[in-house]
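Researcher: Structure prediction, please.
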Amino acid sequence: MFYKENMELKLLQFKSEQLRAEVYIQKKNRQLYKDALFWNKLALIYLSENMFSEAASLSRVVHRMIT
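Model: Predicted structure follows.
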């Protein structure tokens, strides 16, 4: 009986760790998305003002990240 209870506890601990990892990944994904939106806005400003020739390539890269 002890072995079964021990395994159930280990399974619950594993599920808990898995859920924490998923929450961490979701938070990171959300932050990356926010960062990509920021860079997209910045690249569009640069494009509209013709400030940097690299702005077009930056905009394309960021657009790929967002979609």
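Model: The mean pLDDT is 83.
Researcher: Thanks, that helps.
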